[in-house]
Amino acid sequence: MRIDGIPASPGYAEGPVFDLDRPPAAYQRKATATEERAALEAAIGKAVGRLAALVHTVDGDAADILEFHIAMLEDDALSGPALASIGSGQPADAAWRTALDSEIAGYEASDQDYFRARAADLRDIRDQVLRALGEDGEFTAPQGAILCGEDIAPTRFLETDWSKGGGIALKSGSTASHVAMLARSRGVPMVVGLGALAAPLTGAALLDAERGAIIFSPSPTEVETFRQSASAFADRQGAARTFLTEPAVTKAGTAVRVQVNIAYPSDVDGIDIATCDGVGLMRTEFLFGKTLPDEETQYHAYRKVLEWAGDKPVTIRTVDAGGDKPVPGFTVEETNPFLGLRGIRLSLARPDIFRVQIRALLRAAIHGNLKVMFPMIATSDEYSRAATLFAEEQAGLAAQGVAHKLPPLGIMVEVPSVALAPEAFTDVAFFSIGSNDLTQYVMAAARDNAAVAHLNSVHHPAVLRLIAAVVAFGRDKGIPVSLCGDAGGDPAAIPALLEAGLRDLSVAPAQLAMAKAAIAEAGV
Amino acid sequence: MSASAEATVLITHAVGLHARPSVKFTKLAKTFTAEVEVAVAANGPWFDAKSIVKVMAAKAPKGTLLHIRAKGDGATKAVEALVGLVQRDFDEDADHARSA
Predict the structure, then answer these.
(1) Is A316 on the interface with B (CB under 8 A)?
(2) CA B86, CA B66: separation in Å to the nearest integer?
């Protein structure tokens, strides 16, 4: 049975289905309280061991959070109440659940966002131990499995061994989610928006993440067709790899710059700088995960990427929080966050936080070829105000004798007002078209909503016409224009983007080779 | 030994005594044999400073005047060290410089 969804990360996977949402195996009651206590302590130990193994594979905020989970689990004060209830006759699982639920309620009752947000950590901690208690075997998926469920947690993605294949198939989920980005950068096939899966999530399945479908209990014919497509995809990828080390040129001989989008400083560890023309988009939201980052943390993160890139440009986008990316202590709750206080609007509303990022950027600028861009600009006034803050902080650093440099300042073109009336922005250093947001705003279709995903197409003439208009304006005024949305790395969209006049694309690292191969096929 | 010490310190860290600082605070407290406790008010309630579960439960945001008291061997040193950690904003800058 074939179920269609939306491709989130291209590729093919064939393997056993692993149900992410299956309830943990029923806990087997033990004969005595002593055994119950031993079972709970063993389960806590197992959960700690699992987190300790994971903590070495991540960095920054993700590692801090895992260390916090470990410290909580290792604290006798957490297990104390549960162990006491076991003494009065409760089984280990119920005792643990009751004890943790009471902790969680304490956090949920806090009047501060930050502490309220910790309730999610406590729930995670509770479930990790319940999982370890319920299973006598392992909850980890077998190698090469297709992970199927409502949605998937980033920790689950990170702890899975993808070296033997496998993929992700989600009932809801989003192509813009954190995991989808990770999947694309690691080349893990992923399909989202499959809707209610009636099929029992067992047996073998075929995941076609190129077209966006999963086939349960496939017939021999389906298996054969699938394998042919998978092998053709692998061939195309193999052929694409030969393009990786070459500069991108179309069939007609037009040179196209291809840069990479990165979300974490550690992303560059797996990329050979010789294979790309720089970083077209470095996101900075990772710094704003659970807490607000200080200047030094930001400075070192930016400097790492700048030094890696050498003299090639690195375009860092100031924090684009809000929308679907809330940050405790920074963003505000809104009924319509995509149209609310996000991107530059939020940064300008919280200059105390924005100035910290600006200082870190000014100081990092001396370590490479930095460019800085502002997200969600709608009016030229917002650009001027942001540029003024840069000038003020620059003067402050100069007065203190701190080494720094003012980088070229550009803007994202993702709000239709800018694409329709670019003439208000003749003083910006460059334009970078954010095709994901531009498309969602032009088509009035939220990019995280699978129900309107069919509307969210960069191929719509309205979107392509706006892109072409911005390119023409930039060419006329001598302002460079690039594109850093997902469309830039989509082989199906590349011909239309080149047709619209773009000669500078920024793509996910895993799509670099395929993008260059698609450019080589283009006739412009 | 009946040594004891007590001090107060203002939390200046942006989000207060939260997850990452609490991990550091309790790790440092555990290096002392003295019994160490914290409170967000002079009259308590007092929480075991070696327990992250208890320290987090104190829910001390930025601007809280944190009370620290210790009893037993090295009580004075324990209080001094913990006050220093809070005053240095939990060494967040230095740490990131090392890991970057």
Answers:
(1) no
(2) 9
Q: Which amino acid is located at A496 in the chain? A: A
> Topology of A33-134 in CATH?
Enzyme I; Chain A, domain 2 (1.10.274)
Is B16 in CB contact (< 8 Å) with chain A?
yes
Identify the closest residue of chain A to B95 by CA–CA distance: A297
For residues A12-19, average pLDDT: 92
CATH class of the A2-22+140-235 domain in this structure: alpha beta
Q: For residue range B6-64, list pLDDT tens digits in order.
A: 888 888 877 677 788 888 899 999 999 999 999 988 888 899 999 999 988 887 877 88
pLDDT over 60 at B93, yes or no: no
- Assigned fold of A245-521: TIM Barrel (3.20.20)
pLDDT of residue A172: 81
A146/chain B closest Cα distance in angstroms: 34
The 10s digit of each residue's pLDDT in A273-320 is 999 999 999 999 878 866 678 899 999 999 999 999 999 999 999 999
* Min Cα–Cα distance to chain A from B94, Å: 8
Taking an 8 Å cut-off on Cβ atoms, the answer to whether A304 and B54 are in contact is no
Testing the interface with A: which of B52, B62, B92 to mutate, by most A Cβ within 10 A? B52
Cβ contact A147:A156 at 8 Å: yes
Q: Which chain B residues have a beta carbon less than 8 Å from that of A304? A: 100
Phi-psi region of A283 (alpha: psi -120 to 50; beta: other; left: phi over 0): beta
Q: What angle do CA A157, A27, A55 make, to 5 degrees?
A: 30
Q: What is the pTM of this model?
A: 0.62
Give the burial string for A287-301 (b: 16+ CB within 10 Å, else e): bbbbbbbbbbbbbbb
Q: Which residues in A lie closer than 8 A to residue B53 (C-beta atoms)?
A: 72, 75, 77-78, 103
Which domains are delineated in chain B? 4-91 (3.30.1340.10)
Mark yes or no for CB contact A64/B48 under 8 Å: no
**Phi first, then psi: what are they for A25, rounded to 5°?**
-55, 145
A65 vs B19: CB contact, 8 Å cut-off? yes
Encode pLDDT of A24-63 as tens digits.
667 778 888 898 999 999 999 988 988 887 777 666 666 7
Confidence (pLDDT) at A482: 98
User: Tens of pLDDT along B50-59?
Assistant: 999 998 888 7
Q: Does any CB of chain B come closer than 8 Å to the CB of residue A186?
A: no
Q: Residue A179 corresponds to which tokens in the numbers above?
A: 């995991």
